[in-house]
Design a protein that fits this description.
This protein is an alpha+beta fold. It has helices at about 30-40, 60-70, 110-115, 120-140, 225-245, and strands at about 1-5, 10, 50, 60, 95-100, 105-110, 145-155, 160, 165-170, 175, 180-185, 190-195, 195-205, 215-220, 220-225. Helix 2 (about 60-70) runs parallel beside helix 4. About 40% of the residues are buried.
Length: about 250
């Protein structure tokens, strides 16, 4: 039995639907649609986005990151005990995917312990995004700390409605509802994703969501358990990133 962490009412396990493979399909919920949407969402932050030849993800110049984050320091994270810029993973490899009909959902943790395992351009982009929004979202929720996630919604063939509050996380047997949702792309407030459109938002969840253990994403009656596959990859890359940082090697 999964307890609802916000309303304290019981909630049983939701039906599990088989998930597709971990690799993103070009033209669907992958790095290119998300990259273009991020360029639009953060265009007013003074960042210059360009396509990275290595990963297809947009690159934020390092010298621009401090200005965009307003000097905000990363949230305390005991697993982020190595510097950024030494990872090699792509954003898709640290994300959880879920599909309900035509609606595809990609959920990316923005905790430094996770994003520092990604390639330098991806880490700079995600770190800047989290740093820009963390303080204001924490203040709006009234919480001492929050766990931030980048949520991307995509539809290939037709317009589909969505309910932002229906996206929840299950961690340590508790179901957590978002404390605050901030749309990043134009059209988020329409509550509808158009054909071949990507919509992005930052979700602030309670800090009790434990990324070092099993985390499940639920949207209405569909559940994704992909974090079971992602976490070992992230943990292994942390070890390699620490070794590279110790030897001064960057990739």
């Amino acid at each position: 039995m999964i307890a609802d962490a916000k309303r304290t009412t019981g909630g049983g396990p939701l039906p599990h639907r088989a998930m597709p493979g971990r690799r993103a399909t070009p033209g669907r919920t992958g790095s290119v649609p998300i990259a273009l949407a991020l360029a639009l969402a953060l265009g007013g932050c003074g960042l210059i986005f360009q396509e990275s030849e290595s990963s297809g993800a947009p690159m934020v110049p390092a010298e621009e990151v401090a200005e965009a984050t307003g000097g905000a320091e990363p949230a305390p994270d005991s697993a982020a005990d190595f510097p950024g810029g030494y990872g090699t993973l792509r954003q898709e490899e640290i994300s959880m995917r879920l599909r309900r009909g035509e609606l595809e959902v990609l959920v990316t943790p923005l905790a430094e312990s996770v994003t520092r395992t990604t390639a330098p351009d991806t880490w700079e982009r995600l770190s800047a995004l989290a740093g820009t929004h963390r303080s204001s979202l924490r203040d709006r929720t009234g919480a001492d700390a929050v766990q931030l996630f980048l949520v991307a919604l995509y539809s290939e063939h037709q317009a589909v409605p969505f309910e932002p509050d229906d996206l929840t996380l299950v961690s340590r047997g508790l179901r957590f509802r978002p404390l605050e949702i901030r749309g990043l792309t134009p059209g988020w407030d329409r509550l509808r994703v158009g054909p071949r459109e990507t919509l992005l938002a930052i979700y602030a969840f309670p800090d009790q969501v434990d990324l070092e253990r099993e985390v499940e994403v639920e949207y209405q009656e569909v559940r994704s358990r992909e974090w079971e596959q992602v976490l070992p990859v992230v943990q292994a890359e942390r070890g390699r990133a620490r070794a590279r940082a110790g030897g001064g090697l960057r990739y």
